[in-house]
Design brief:
With 82 residues, the chain is α+β, with helices and mostly antiparallel strands. The chain has one domain. The chain is built from two helices and three strands. Strands 1-2-3 form a three-stranded antiparallel beta sheet. The longest helix has 12 residues. The protein starts with a strand and ends in a 9-residue tail after the last helix. The mean pLDDT is 91.
């Protein structure tokens, strides 16, 4: 078992009114963390887990969430000056 898995998924509204996917990670020690993913991160997460709907994310390892956040953040990176 991964050190944490997705235990709950729901839709939420970001401060700007945009929809976001809110996942709860459950750790082996019983702790929980709630992570909000914007559309870009949620799309990457769904694709990497091969999930057809958000409910299919339950039980997936936290690494998918980490990687989705990292991939989505890449869109804000700019190329270094030449």
């Amino acid at each position: 078992m991964s050190s944490a898995v997705i235990s709950d998924v729901r839709l939420g509204a970001a401060h700007d009114g945009e929809a976001e996917l809110v996942v709860t990670l459950r750790f082996e020690n019983g702790g929980q963390s709630v992570v909000a993913l914007d559309h870009a991160a949620a799309s990457v997460l769904m694709e990497s887990c091969r999930a057809q709907d958000p409910a299919a994310l339950i039980g997936q390892g936290w690494e998918h969430v980490r990687d989705a956040l990292a991939a989505a953040a890449q869109r804000f990176m700019t190329a270094p000056p030449a």
